[in-house]
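Notebook entry, structure prediction.
Reason for the run: the old model in the group folder had no record of what sequence produced it. Starting over properly, with the input documented here first.
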Amino acid sequence: MPAPSGTLDPLILIAHRADDTGETSIALARELRQVFGPRHVQVAPSPSGDGAGASAADVPPEFAQVAAILERSAVVIVMIGARWLADGEGRRRADLPGDHVRRLCESALNAPAAVIPVYVDGARALRANDFPKAPGLRPLASLEGIEVRRNSWETDIARLRARIVRSGMPEIGSAAATLEAADRLREVLTARPVTPEDLESLFADLRAVHKGYLHVLESLAARVPDAWEEETPRFPRRVREAAAELRRLRLEYAPVRARIAAAAEALPGALLPPPLEAFARAVLRCLPTGELTADEGPDGAAALDGLYAALDGDLSVELAGLVHGTVTFHRRRWADVRERHAALGTG
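New structure, fully documented this time:
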């Protein structure tokens, strides 16, 4: 399911019971923030009490806050442990109309967001007959869940991550996330006045995009064969596969390159203070482009065209060196962004 329409900043919302899956939920949020960005993952508050004295009409402040977040959520993860349905004394919390987790899940099931049940450490899958007094929760039992276990954490998180991406959330470092960062840069720089808070939020987004893109490049570099493998039978196939991935990235990031070029052209007309303009230029030079690096200057584009043409048929092109060189290039550019950011004195 795609992210809610009109949403510039889609979120992943994690719903949990603190006394059931609290520690696992926090650990999961930490993992997902590294993949989707720190501003894009929220853990719903888990108020104390079970809502036994509340009615469906009572709206606690915590739930009002979560309801606003839910409107922006592309994905809602429902963390389900051994005590999700009932507490340690056997009291069925999901039957209570005032139970905050029940309310959140019922709202999520009626929202555009994709809802993903996550079963923690062997918790059994929900069944429709688990909800005799909560019919609004029954659709939750029909959704495909994902198990997350401590002894297979990395594998399970990878499966969950892939599911979230299929649900419409862009990973940091992806073309979609980079376009969002470019739009965020434009929003911040056209605001009057430009506030330190907005700049710090932008810098956090840019750092996440940079780290995500480095992960993309480093993962690609790990798959590219080294020169010493040239005599092995698998070498031509692996080079062709890596070249195909590089061409795919170049095509995927074409809109990003167009957006960066337009932003750079419009920058002089923004009449920004010199330190802020220097920061903006450094950001535009650092944003991921999906391309291998080439010498800057008027012949840079032609050099890149020639390079990618060579990838189509010339297996002597040393891909590993080119990819590692691109990683180094982006690290240097990010160092320049950090330096320009420090000069703004907002941190």
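Summary: The chain is about 55% helix and 5% strand.
The old model has been moved to the deprecated folder.
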